[in-house]
Amino acid sequence: MGKIITISREFGSGGRELGKRLADALGYDYYDKEIITHISNKVGLSEEYVSTLSEQGMSHYVINYGRSFYINPDQNKVMTAQHEFLRSVALKGNCVIVGRGANIILKDFNPLNIFVYASLESKLERCKLKANEEEKLTDKELIKRIKEIDKNRKNYFSLFFDYEWGDKRNYHLCINTSNVVIKDLIPSLKSFVENY
Amino acid sequence: MGKIITISREFGSGGRELGKRLADALGYDYYDKEIITHISNKVGLSEEYVSTLSEQGMSHYVINYGRSFYINPDQNKVMTAQHEFLRSVALKGNCVIVGRGANIILKDFNPLNIFVYASLESKLERCKLKANEEEKLTDKELIKRIKEIDKNRKNYFSLFFDYEWGDKRNYHLCINTSNVVIKDLIPSLKSFVENY
Question: Taking Cα atoms as reference points, which of A19, A8, A6 lies closest to residue A183?
Fold first, then answer.
């Protein structure tokens, strides 16, 4: 069986770029948004909705009606499809998977888990560089968004997996990408994956 | 000016071996116990006492007499010598320094800061392999010692530097050495240092 690399990343840390470049350097398959597309087709829900359900927390899971609430059944459908798809990918081996709880869902496959993080200033810079013209946000709005997305990820992991997202003990390697050109990290990361 | 690599490490994580091997691979100077020997000679205190004062917390810093207490003056002597020596080493450049607050004391030199950690089981194994025959401790005693040493390090950094020891944000790279042969990590770490 080949190797499975999972990349968990703070929003704006460049983790997705790092994952893609690492997969290319290793000649591995790369999975990121493909996972959402697959699940979306499978369960017949929009990609945006699936994306939210597959990495976000309580507020999307539980729907409140005044004093009563019920568990959103779409969440379970998405979660089941997510597990199935990730396991089928893992069985093929030699892949890099970004996000979607792959590090936990595929625990039995002994993946190599990498966490990518950066300072808030650096994440803000990366987000500004990537923003489309039509979705220009102020720095304040962007910072709010960065914090919100990571808070949701943390909550999601805590709720569904009883797992502390971002705690270094849950990863083999944690990389700080503040003020770093992602491309420059790839040769050493490739070597790391090959020798760890 | 050359590069400065600092290694912070949990007790039993193999951080010292990693630092030594990395220095050898890079052809850099290596500083670890040499720092203690130098300070010991400089301030005229035993190496063991200097070692305790240079990386441990409150209990050695403040001496209690009933309700009154005073600040241990040796602590300040050691701290001054520690700063002076680390800065002289940094000015020469191209070095790997293990522990002793080098990542913070040399902050202005922009060192590359690496944190080495491992699971408790793995640290216990490493400690058992390294223990001298005459100091054989039970697993329970060893675990207590491992936890105590790291707790002291954490307290020391919090007290003297207002700094959270082990928080990934304070390092460029965090490496989990559980079940890993340290030697195998060196080529990728060397490449990481050269390209970061």
Answer: A19
pLDDT of amino acid A132: 72
The ipTM estimated for the assembled molecules is 0.84
Interface test with A, best of B8, B165, B169 (most A CBs within 10 A): B169
Interface of A with B (CB under 8 A): 115, 117, 119, 166, 168-169, 171-176, 180, 184-185, 187-189, 191-192, 194-196
CA distance B116 to B178: 10
| Residue range A100-149, pLDDT digits in tens | 889 999 999 999 999 999 999 999 999 988 877 667 788 898 899 899 88
The three-point CA angle A52-A54-A57 to 5° equals: 70
Is-contact B128 B188, C-beta < 8 A?
no
Inter-chain contact A192–B192, Cβ cutoff 8 Å?
Answer: yes
SS3 of residue A131 by DSSP: coil
Helix (H) or strand (E) holding A34: helix A33-43
- Beta carbons within 8 Å of A104's beta carbon, 6+ residues apart: A157, A161, A163
DSSP letter (8 states) at residue A100:
T
8 A C-beta contact, residue A175 and residue A115 = yes
CA gap A104, A113 in Å, rounded: 9
Burial profile A1-39: b = 16 or more Cβ within 10 angstroms, e = fewer: eebbbbbbbbbbbbbbbbbbbbbebbebebbbeebbebb
Neighbours of A107 (CB within 10 A): 13
User: Who among B173, B189, B195 is closest to A176 (CB)?
Assistant: B173
The candidate with the shortest Cα–Cα distance to B173, out of B18, B2, B12, B32, is: B18
Mean pLDDT of A22-46: 93
- pTM: predicted TM-score of the whole model, two decimal places: 0.87
- Please state whether beta strands A29-31 and B68-71 pair in parallel, antiparallel, or not at all (unpaired): unpaired
Q: How many CB pairs under 8 A join A and B?
A: 66
A180: chain B residues, CB-CB within 8 Å: 196
Question: Which residues of chain A are within 8 Å of residue B173 when distances are taken between CB atoms?
Answer: 173-176
